[in-house]
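Students often ask why inverse folding is considered easier than folding. One informal answer: many sequences map to the same fold, so there is more than one right answer. In these notes we will look at a single instance of the problem. The structure comes first.
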């Protein structure tokens, strides 16, 4: 049995403050969970939790992954941008061109995200968080497809994307050249195994697919820290 994507995790200096920003922007309920800490609940059956974990390391460069938020119309896009700015976001430059239709913002801790223009067919039907867009190789797209049991919905010119069979948010990788790695990944995937699945066996399966185990034992919260073939950190829990 494959792992399930349980949550998308932000490393944050002020987890509750950052969670409030995303809660207001996404319209999701904020909770204190015994295992997940500060988290936003899914807003659909095919959505995932968003966790906020305390971390002191400064943000040194552009994140290797970010949210792409979708828009139903030009007015809807403008309203999302205005709401984000009012909540504490700011405009940021990641090299986007003036003629590109998406708007690039950063949340109160500097995590980049895009508000995509209306009419983007690739993200149609994916929900408000249309994609977790990452910097990564074709090989890492293949790894995550096998790790989660999600089909590839895009595989062209070394760019890949996967999506759950139930639909919802896509996870995408843009292919080379890759950004240099500086510091820890501030967006990470949290995986969970089924009730009748042994965590050690699942860790071994992920290693056989190309992952590496970072720590010899589980953390205090029972999660095992690993890296995918591109070196991106993720966790596995029972």
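Output (designed amino acids):
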């Amino acid at each position: 049995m494959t792992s399930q994507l349980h949550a998308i995790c932000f490393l944050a200096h002020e987890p509750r403050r950052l969670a409030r920003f995303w809660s207001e922007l996404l319209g999701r309920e904020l909770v204190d969970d015994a295992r997940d800490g500060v988290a936003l609940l899914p807003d659909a059956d095919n959505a995932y939790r968003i966790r906020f974990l305390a971390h002191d390391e400064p943000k040194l460069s552009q994140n290797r992954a970010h949210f792409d938020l979708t828009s139903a119309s030009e007015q809807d896009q403008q309203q999302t941008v205005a709401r984000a700015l009012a909540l504490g976001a700011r405009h940021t430059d990641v090299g986007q061109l003036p003629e590109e239709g998406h708007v690039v913002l950063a949340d109160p801790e500097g995590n980049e995200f895009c508000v995509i223009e209306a009419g983007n067919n690739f993200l149609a039907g994916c929900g408000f968080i249309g994609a977790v867009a990452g910097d990564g190789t074709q090989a890492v797209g293949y790894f995550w497809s096998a790790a989660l049991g999600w089909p590839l919905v895009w595989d062209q010119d070394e760019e890949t994307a996967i999506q759950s069979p139930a639909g919802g948010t896509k996870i995408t990788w843009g292919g080379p050249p890759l950004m240099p790695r500086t510091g820890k990944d501030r967006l990470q995937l949290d995986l969970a195994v089924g009730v009748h699945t042994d965590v050690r066996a699942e860790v071994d399966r992920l290693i056989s697919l190309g992952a590496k185990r970072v720590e010899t034992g589980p953390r205090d919260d029972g999660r095992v820290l690993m890296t995918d073939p591109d070196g991106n950190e993720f966790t596995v829990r029972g």
